[in-house]
Amino acid sequence: MIEVRGIYKRFDDNEVLTDISLTINEGEVVAIIGPSGSGKSTLLRCINYLEPPDKGDVLIDGELAYRDFKGKELSKAKIASTRSTVGMVFQHFDLFPHMTVLDNVCSGPRFVSKVDKAEYQQRAKKLLERVGVAEKQDQYPGQLSGGQQQRVAIARSLAMEPAAMLFDEPTSSLDPELVGEVLSVMRQLVDDGMTMAVVTHEMGFVRQVADRVIFMDCGKIVEEGTPEALFTNPQHERTRAFLSAILSHTERTKPEPTSDPQTIVEESSYPIVLP
Amino acid sequence: MFFNPELALDALSTLSLGLLVTILLTLACGFTSLILGIFVALARMSRFWLLRIVVNGYVQLMRSTPLLIQLIYIYFALPFIGIRLDPFLAAYVGLSLHVSAYLAEVYRGGIEAVPKGQTDASAALGMRPSVIMARVVLPQAIRIVIPSLGNYMVSLFKDTSLAAVITVQELLFRGQIFAARTYDYFTIYTLVFAMYFAIGYPAIRLVIYIEKKLKRGYTAKLAEKPARDIAVMEETK
Ligand SMILES: Nc1ncnc2c1ncn2[C@@H]1O[C@H](COP(=O)(O)OP(=O)(O)OP(=O)(O)O)[C@@H](O)[C@H]1O
Ligand SMILES: [Mg+2]
User: How far is the CA of B182 from the centre of ligand 1 (A)?
Assistant: First the structure.
């Protein structure tokens, strides 16, 4: 579905991604974890070309997505249309503050795909119901809680009916009690078979839904495996150090009050065993 | 008594006509430059380098020379190369070009103030650059700069008085003529002064009011909420 081949990216003389290759198969959920500054966001942004890689290719459905085989950039229109097949959700939601919640969700179909108004409005309303913010449709993003905003952002992405979704720390800027509601929407997506790449520090969530975990450090993929394998038996010292730091942090902040009973169970059991 | 009420009454009709011309000139130039300014700002960010250079040159020229000489040049100098404009049109063109250059800078500031996440989010949805600008960035940028635009409109209103130099029959020009005829500079110019103030001051208050209103951010009309709740919410802030 998504294939990244030998991507390099540097900002000035800061080499952020070094020879990254990975494949995300259809229906697969891949979690990307790693310390701050390791290049996780940059990798996601390269996948939909918000950040053009210096070297390397991105293939979507087996085709070069943004550049031809000579490395020449495709047309803006082509790039835009490829992007619309891969949804992205950001840490700070980035909803359009000047549009109502409903207009936010309609914005993709309305300004990109030019489908019939009645059709996309109906779809948007369904999506808002699905993420549980239907009653807010006429409000502006600024009037919503962080958790509600992020759920609207997810609905906005889904309105383009993407084949895959990229999540960049979708819960990191949320108050702890709002994390559960966003994770439960994401879990629904997993259950529906969505192909996903998720950068997150929510190890409980990773453990529960990820098919594969990729640990990145200093712009490289250090190791990858099933959550089970990576959490219980990390092969590299850096992975171990990172996991133990994360674990001790979550231990400290563990008793998170949350209204979602499912989340309480899941978020409070961190079955991470470190050697 | 320095102020002669009878003479003032006499002058009032011609001065009112002058004020009308002043207001017309303000509205015409204001409307034009509010729109032209956006295009100038966009042209300065264009990917066509020639367009960028030309428009940039125009903006620098307008910003680095006095408005007065710009108007004089258009009205008195351009006829020598065959461009003959009547006074009102010359003032309209001169003021619009001048103000557009400034507004372009204002718009550019507004565009740059829109967070990068907005562009990223729209690009990720598959919007093309022109759509992102028109639907996401500009609407937010314009809202950000509305108070500045308002202040520039008030300045424009005052600057139209410079058009007197190129014989536009606006408020100051008519005052000058009337005063020169009657020698009662005090009465006439006091009246002219007061008439500018009568428009300019409410305009400034309006800008301040709008600025305050915009500070509240984007909010839906909370029609379904009883007003009492909102009052309580505001108090507890
Ligand atoms: N637009 C940019 N310009 C310059 N440097 C950048 C830019 N974006 C990212 N970087 C740098 O690239 C490095 C990797 O950043 P990136 O955001 O990809 O890391 P991350 O793993 O997502 O970290 P975090 O967990 O803090 O989000 C950092 O050192 C960052 O300062
Ligand atoms: Mg990041």
Answer: 74
